[in-house]
Amino acid sequence: MRLAILTILLGVLSFTALATPPLKPFVVSYNDNTPQSVIDQAMDAVRAAKGRITHEYKLIKGFAASAPRSVFEQIQTLGENWGATVEEDNLIRTNDDQSGR
To answer: What is the reported pTM?
Structure first.
């Protein structure tokens, strides 16, 4: 009985893992004259794709998020008239010294 329950549970978990596309961290920014409604629409698209808004910027018009890559391609296309820039969020280093000194 336990084996049957465990087998079913593992099957459901593996199906869920396969059905969810991997999330990628991205930063999205817009020109200063972009209406807030355009940015809100982009953030709604992220949420609709089961992504997360990780930060909303105050000094620039934009946000950081984690979502499937296809959402950010959609945001780039929808925001072309507003100068939308979509970049993968990466760690930037100022030198090659990895020792932490």
So the answer is: 0.69
